[in-house]
Amino acid sequence: MMKYQHIKLLVVDDEPAIVDFLTLGLENEGFQVKTATDGLSALNIVKTYQPHICILDVMMPGMDGYEVCKLMKKVCQISIIMLTAKDEVEYRIKGLCGGADDYMMKPFSFDELLARIQARLRNQFPYLLSDLSIGPFQVDDRRKEIRFNQKVLKLSATEYELLKLFIVNHGIVLSKSTILEKVWGYDFNGEDNIVEVYIRALRDKIGDKEHKMIRTLRSTGYRLDIQ
């Protein structure tokens, strides 16, 4: 399990079942979580709690999510993922133009929400991910070191970036083009089979002879699975 003990989330929704579901799931992932059932309470919490990410419902009694979003952005540096049951494009545009950083439809997958939270952290709070612990892996981004089963792996700079990409996105399929873009950059002009070469090297270094951790998904990409 990835540890996010130092990352603060705020869940704002007037449906108790959704609040309980998200709180349980996010706390199990290691996040600090506070909750609110209306906009005014949420704004009061933000002022003192200063969360990094807010999961904000649009349709609430009194002050709706759009107004809450605008006011939150004035109070602190925060990333807002809006939740809504409305599928029309105009509502998504309204939310994004009002300051929301991402938008999800109800009902939603918790795994997808977690992936979107991770994306927001990478984009807006990358320093919070400098120290990660997930399963047998520990990432120290300041020292550019990755430990596997408590032992520091001997990695090249590129191997480090590739393995870190897998760890941060564990459980998510990464296409070869995505890996090339994130690790080698937009302007890489070499052969794309370099990805396979580096993945083979990583498997050797973590003893993944049967490819049970770094899995190859034919015609799709690669995925890091951690039990």
Automatic annotation (TrEMBL):
Gene3D superfamilies: 3.40.50.2300, 6.10.250.690, Winged helix-like DNA-binding domain superfamily/Winged helix DNA-binding domain. Residues 8-121 form the Response regulatory domain. Residues 129-226 bind DNA. The modification 4-aspartylphosphate is found at residue 57. It is found in: Cytoplasm. Keywords: Cytoplasm, DNA-binding, Phosphoprotein, Transcription, Transcription regulation, Two-component regulatory system. Residues 129-226 form the OmpR/PhoB-type domain. PROSITE patterns: OMPR_PHOB (PS51755), RESPONSE_REGULATORY (PS50110). PANTHER family: REGULATOR OF RPOS (PTHR48111), TWO-COMPONENT RESPONSE REGULATOR ORR33 (PTHR48111:SF1). This is Response regulator transcription factor. It comes from Bacillus xiamenensis. The lineage of its organism: Bacteria, Bacillati, Bacillota, Bacilli, Bacillales.
